[in-house]
Amino acid sequence: MPELFQLLADTPVFSSLPKKELQNLASFAVPRKLQPGEFLCHQGDIWPNLLYLLEGELRWAILSVSGREQVLFLIQSGKTFWGHSIFDGSPMPASLSALKASSVYIWTKQVILPILDRHPQAHWEINRMLVATMRQAREIIYGLAFKPVASRLAALLLDRTSGQMNQPVHRDLTLSEIASMVASSQEVVCRLLYQFRSEGIIEIDRASITIQNAEALENLINAG
Asked: Mean pLDDT over residues 5-24, rounded?
């Protein structure tokens, strides 16, 4: 496996940094292993840190006053995550936790800001990253506001299976996790999954899911 400084060189913010600075950054990394469901920070925490996900998958989720959870997006291996508190010192607007067993590297604000200040071009890349995040948030809000649950579930199924047809894919999300990702209840999701199966769109059991009609799922997405 490449060394950490080499992995950081492939991320947008740090790609322009010289090798010596990348090695310096890597030397301050704090490694941490996470079990599924383990939290890095909770909504409302002050968490002024930068994270690099070496392996696994993380979830960024918001909790309503009534206790209902909505997963906003997932973070895949090879990606960085910048705690909002780095920039404004305010509480985190959502919670960050491990969806799968994960390995991460963490840097504090005190480590990362001096490096950014020495390389102003990195600030521009952070701005680009934040704009991309806002665009992603817009799509999430649009989906929640205007797309029915069936459309959101169809999109999630295609995403988690990479659109593979007639090939069983390991089912790595619980019913509760699926419900939180499509902003619905477990009962509604369960009913829709059975409906999709009865219509020959998917085959599903406790261990795997098979897409049998990707076009039907695409039609559901577009119809929404």
From this structure: 95
